[in-house]
Amino acid sequence: MKLIVEGMTCGRCVRAITTAIQRLDPSALVHVDLTTEEVCIDSPLDVNSAVKAIHDEGYSVVSILGDDAPSDTAPANQGSCCGTCHA
């Protein structure tokens, strides 16, 4: 899943989001791009759980991109992930 998250500015933010997701799924691969505000999560977690975990850390998920997005919020031509977390 790919999320757009506001409020991330540094390595501490990256660690906080990564840790929050990996508390729910220790095997989750999480890639955070501070420049684009994208968080890519490779995990079977449902999107609502991921959004709540990120919100609980104090960040705002402003968009859900790709196949995980509700049909009324998915931008056109967006893939389900940035591809960075897939080896």
From TrEMBL:
Per the UniProt entry, the signal peptide is none
Show where the HMA domain sits: 1-62
Looking at the UniProt entry, the stretches that span the membrane are none
Against InterPro entries, the record matches this protein to:
HMA_dom, HMA_dom_sf
* Protein name (record): Heavy-metal-associated domain-containing protein
Q: What lineage does the source organism belong to? A: Bacteria, Pseudomonadati, Pseudomonadota, Gammaproteobacteria, Lysobacterales
